[in-house]
Amino acid sequence: MDYLSTLNEPQYEGVVNTDGPSMIIAGAGSGKTRVLTFRIAYLIQEKKVDPFNILALTFTNKAAKEMRERIEQVVGSNARNLWMGTFHSVFARILRAEAEKLGYPSNFTIYDADDSKSLIKTIVKEYGLDDKVYKPNVVLNRISGAKNRLVSWQEYINNPIYAGDDAAAQKPEMGRIYKTYCLRCFKANAMDFDDLLFNTNVLFRDHIDVLNKYQQRFKYVMVDEFQDTNVSQYLITKKLASVTQNIAVVGDDAQSIYAFRGANIENILNFEKDFPDLKVIKLEQNYRSSQNIVKAANSVIALNKGQLQKTVWTANGEGNKIELIKAISDNEEGRFVASAIFEKKASDSSKNSDFAVLYRTNSQSRAIEEALRKSGINYKIFGGLSFYQRKEIKDLMAYLRYAMNPEDEQSFRRIINLPKRGIGTTSVEKIVVAAFEHDIPLWEVLTNINSFLPGRVANAVNEFVTLIKNFKISADTKDAYEAASHIAKNSGLLKELYADKTVEGLNRYENVQELLNAIKEFVDSPDVEDKGLGAFLQDVALLTDTDNDKDENQDYVSLMTIHSSKGLEFNNVFIVGLEEDLFPSQMMLSSRADLEEERRLFYVAITRAKKNLYFSYALSRYRFGRLMNCEPSRFIEEVDPSFIFVNTRYGSREPKLGRSENPPGFSSNYAKNLIANRKQQTQKKPLQYHKPSANFRPSDISELQEGQKVEHPKFGFGKVRKIDVNGANKKAQVVFEDFGEKTLLLAFAKLRIVE
Ligand SMILES: Nc1ncnc2c1ncn2[C@@H]1O[C@H](COP(=O)(O)OP(=O)(O)OP(=O)(O)O)[C@@H](O)[C@H]1O
Ligand SMILES: [Mg+2]
């Protein structure tokens, strides 16, 4: 068995000790995921366990897919029957099978965060409450928090301790909104993401026979990234494994980064209590990264007080130091990243897929994206406004969802007047309220609309009903692709998009075609058993940020948030935007616990790198629509400086922003300056614009030359780097002393030529 011979001693223990509970809490890159993968292969191949009896819970569907592929390499296609996926996808599947026990039909809809928010908005409005007090986001977070602690709306209302004592909880109507939200979801045959876990808990609590069935089925349970499970997820796992006790969990407390979403690090302690026969396995050797990277990561995480003691070392070579790059602006940062990738590819023939750019927030991708595009480097953004969040895609998806479930209120609202049928929002409200007040299904109101609305609108609704009935037949009788094509065509959506001949319109049309392609692919895939529309919709509803991996065979640089990068590895990693208030995030500075979570996030980012790691920061950046002056992140300074090298080749243009010129981490004064600056500047101010000189008069710039010095009324003095005569739009690229490079359209630019 050659795959076992590649394991070190404790990894081997983790693989072959398949009976009874075990837990591996170990540092990044030490092979935890690999142990789980091999353990499954071992169960199937050596222990002759039927894959049907194995359940493996991963953090993303992508991780599940990769594990499955690796297992298939060992055991062959037999691995297909494994149950492996995210908590949400596995339990959505169980809930579909058992839905009627909870009073749901099996074709229930899964509401995404937008659906949930818009439902909350509606409820807040219906109650005549102020949506500045009851912000949909805040309310949703609160409801989500309650569900993840398994606090039902009844408990929330009856027992104020559940509501908590923070500002959000003090709002008196929160309980009522929670209640109505749940009732409306139920009525719409819909579950939100948190319900998938909450309802699984209810199912296993109230239906012992069902629990027994799954306990017997899943004889071996495994959980990756255990540190990020919440209470609700933990309870489900615990219950499933409580009979056989064959459970293995792996994780790293130093990588716990979802406390803000209810992940509970105490699950590690609970696990020890709940499974007293536990075998604890330690992995200490990191196989992923160079010495420099491992040591740098250790030096950072050592600053956290609340960590379990762990050793992480590597036998890998020393490797290169971390390169630190300073940029004047976010755009320049993007260009540096692009140049560094370009040069690295040229020097050692790396592929695009060897690179990842990691950032704290999705909005940072813009500058990086632009620079990569200009350099002709293929890239892909994970997360953010993904394909499935685009309007035209959501529109068609709403039709598909509605054809499956005519009680789905959010989809109904989206499509009832799309394309326009003359059914206004007042009529829509009347319909929804009628269903609620009479306590009848929405579909019943629609099919008896003449009793509720006056003639003209009623006629329009009747036409809509006929259309949906027709769609329903096709959803019930055809495969997902045929049904979706039929619906796209006959709903009028495609026609409307086709009629729009603008570039955006064309794009939208192509996006819809692309969705149909994706459905075709789904239907054609040998891994898919159920080829119906419902199965496809469920698949899409449960996509996680890193899943959207359609063009797998292409070679691209990965752009993603650090949160999404968990568990992944790349030869070369850029951590960009290492600036105070961005990373660590401004919102995470209020308590030591929050700052420690940010630091763990930094640790996760560092440990994604195998060979080369780059840090970058910009001295100014557009945020919230304003140009902000930024300071380098404290995290840069927290890395032991002996592992860092300042790359002045990229960051050579010194800005004049009154900052300390010392690169972070290199001078003992640096920390003092940083602290002093931070105290002075608790509130970030936008950069001061230039005051034009007294003799400022715009010059005739039709003759503007490269190399000339100019004055701009806002950006001050600068030098013309390049003039671009491309068609009618003559542009100048000017490097301003204080604002970095700007591209100005000469037809509009007010410039004084100084010399
Ligand atoms: N014994 C080994 N021999 C060779 N390579 C190994 C060994 N163990 C792990 N690796 C490799 O090290 C890398 C990290 O392993 P893995 O992803 O399983 O670590 P992990 O502990 O799950 O990391 P993370 O905490 O980031 O999720 C992988 O490329 C894996 O193939
Ligand atoms: Mg892992």
Automatic annotation (TrEMBL):
Where do the UvrD-like helicase C-terminal domain residues begin and end?
291-567
Q: Which Pfam families match?
A: PcrA_UvrD_tudor (PF21196), UvrD-helicase (PF00580), UvrD_C (PF13361)
Q: What is its EC number?
A: 5.6.2.4
Q: Where is the UvrD-like helicase ATP-binding domain?
A: 5-290
Q: Name one GO biological process term.
A: recombinational repair
Q: Which residues bind ATP?
A: 26-33
Q: Sorted alphabetically, which SUPFAM superfamilies does this protein's record hold?
A: P-loop containing nucleoside triphosphate hydrolases
One molecular function GO term is: 3'-5' DNA helicase activity
Instruction: Report keywords, A-Z.
Output: ATP-binding, DNA-binding, Helicase, Hydrolase, Isomerase, Nucleotide-binding
Record GO cellular component, one term: DNA helicase complex
Chemical reaction(s) catalysed: ATP + H2O = ADP + phosphate + H(+); Couples ATP hydrolysis with the unwinding of duplex DNA by translocating in the 3'-5' direction
EC primary class: isomerase
The protein depicted here goes by the name DNA 3'-5' helicase
Q: Which organism was this protein described from?
A: Roseivirga pacifica
